[in-house]
TrEMBL record:
MF-aspect GO terms: 8-oxo-7,8-dihydrodeoxyguanosine triphosphate pyrophosphatase activity; 8-oxo-7,8-dihydroguanosine triphosphate pyrophosphatase activity; 8-oxo-dGDP phosphatase activity; 8-oxo-GDP phosphatase activity; metal ion binding
Catalysed reactions, semicolon-separated: 8-oxo-dGTP + H2O = 8-oxo-dGMP + diphosphate + H(+); 8-oxo-GTP + H2O = 8-oxo-GMP + diphosphate + H(+)
Name the UniProt record assigns to this protein: 8-oxo-dGTP diphosphatase
Classification via InterPro entries: MutT-like, Nudix_hydrolase, NUDIX_hydrolase-like_dom_sf, NUDIX_hydrolase_CS, NUDIX_hydrolase_dom
Cofactor: Mg(2+)
Length: 174
């Protein structure tokens, strides 16, 4: 399988060999000035305290857009229209606890006041990413990148996510 990011490769996998892929909806909420929302993973979850984009696992029968709308409401009290979700890119990550397929989506419109319903912290971050550590965990891939957010920053730049006219930016152009 191409382009799998292996996180914490020095740690044993829960189930060596074939593992089911867990699909995760990930929301990159972007403000007009280019700042994006990161939240901390609540206590009790794997990688507790790590910063991530809000989102979560798809439930049976859900689309990525539906899952993202549900998760943003449950975790942050924000409401979105699934039609406003812009699919961005996908990334497979092989974690010790699971093999996940992250469905990154961009969002420019949401309603409601931010509520940290699971006791998370939040930050509207910029580039270079200030929050640390950021998921996926420290990368030990063959490329030798050791910084947790290296791939993220590279991709943000590559896709010109933060250029001033980003509201007009079409996902079809990447
Ligand atoms: N939400 C989110 N998850 C991410 C990101 N990056 C990343 O590797 N993940 C991984 C971590 C987890 O293995 C998985 C998300 O699972 P989760 O346990 O947070 O999902 P959930 O909110 O549905 O949790 P639960 O119902 O099982 O409690 O995706 C990210 O930026 N945001």
């Amino acid at each position: 399988m191409a382009d799998i990011l292996k996180a914490d490769a020095h740690l044993a996998r829960d189930v060596p060999g074939e593992r089911p892929i867990v699909d995760v909806a990930v929301g990159v909420l972007l403000q007009a000035d280019g700042r994006f929302l990161l939240t901390s993973r609540p206590a009790g979850k794997v990688y507790a305290g790590y910063w991530e984009f809000p989102g979560g696992k798809l439930e049976a029968g859900e689309s990525v857009e539906q899952a993202l709308a549900r998760e943003l409401h449950e975790e942050l009290g924000l409401d979105i229209d699934p039609a406003d979700v812009q699919r961005w890119r996908e990334q497979l990550v092989d974690y010790p606890h699971a093999l996940v397929r992250l469905h990154f989506c961009k969002l420019f419109d949401w309603r409601g006041e931010l509520q940290m319903r699971e006791g998370q912290a939040f930050v509207w971050d910029t580039l270079p990413v200030q929050a640390a550590p950021v998921l996926p965990g420290r990368c030990r891939c063959s490329n030798g990148c050791r910084r947790s957010a290296a791939w993220l920053q590279a991709d943000f730049k590559k896709y010109s996510l933060l250029r001033p006219s980003h509201k007009d930016f079409s996902i079809n152009s990447i």
